[in-house]
Structure formats: structure tokens, C-alpha cells
Amino acid sequence: MREHGEYTDMTCCRINYLRYAPCLKNVSTDERKCANQYKKLANNHGGNPDDPNSVNVNYGLKLHCCAFTEFVECQHEFILRDCGHHAHQFFQSQLDRMSGSLLNEHCALFTHGSNACSFNQNVGVSLFSNDYYMYRSLCMLVTALTALLFFIQR
């Protein structure tokens, strides 16, 4: 059985979701806003068999983290501008709740706009040795978050 506080939080979340969803959807799907970043993130879930770097776990981690942070930064900018402060707070709280510490820990080295997100094809230095399963888990999380963010926008 749910406690009263948890029930109230979920009710507020649903009300805020219904209130802000149209604007959040617009931010994610408008070509002049974040649609290109969303498409890049959505297209990164599978490896490119023609890309020799696609088998490199570190390269894949970097690719996913940089695309995700680029998409989130774009959303922050346009949600605050187009949807308002309260919508921005709602988005941030839901993002924090969904991503937890996994993205903050594993993507901390890869911030969009930093040198860490520039792609040099000749980089062979391993940041995370033998972390294939961690990488696959992160890929699944990023894919799930992308899908969830997309459906939140609907």
C-alpha cells in the first residue's frame, strides 16, 4: 500500500507531465531546436559495422555519452526559454530520477562541447579496460532514457 506522500508525489508528477508534455515534445521534435540531437542519439544505439572504432568499448561509451549530453543540454536551453522555469525544473527532476548516478559516473569524462567529445579516429588509449558489460548496460540505459524522453514528449 502506498503512503500518502508517495501518492501525492505521483499525482503531482502526472499533473505536471500533462501540463508540460506538449512543450517538451515541441522542443525535442522541432528541427530548429533539438530534433537533430535527438536523431543523433537515437541513431547511436547500434554500431556501424563499417566503422573500425565501433568495436572499441571506449569509443562507443564516448559516442553515447557525448550524444546524450548534447541532447540534454539542448533541451535545457529550449525548455527554459520556451516552456518556462517550472517546466525546466520538472524536466531536471525527472532526468535526475531516471538517470541516477550511472550517467553521472560513467559519462562524467565526456561533456558535450569539451575536448573530451572531439572524435579523433587514432585514439587508442583505454579509459575503461575490459568494461564491455558496463558499456552495454550504459547503452541499454541511454536507449531506455531516449525512449522514455521521447514518450514523455508525446
From TrEMBL:
<keyword id="KW-0812">Transmembrane</keyword>
<protein>
    <submittedName>
        <fullName>Uncharacterized protein</fullName>
    </submittedName>
</protein>
<feature type="transmembrane region" description="Helical">
    <location>
        <begin position="133"/>
        <end position="152"/>
    </location>
</feature>
<keyword id="KW-0472">Membrane</keyword>
<keyword id="KW-1133">Transmembrane helix</keyword>
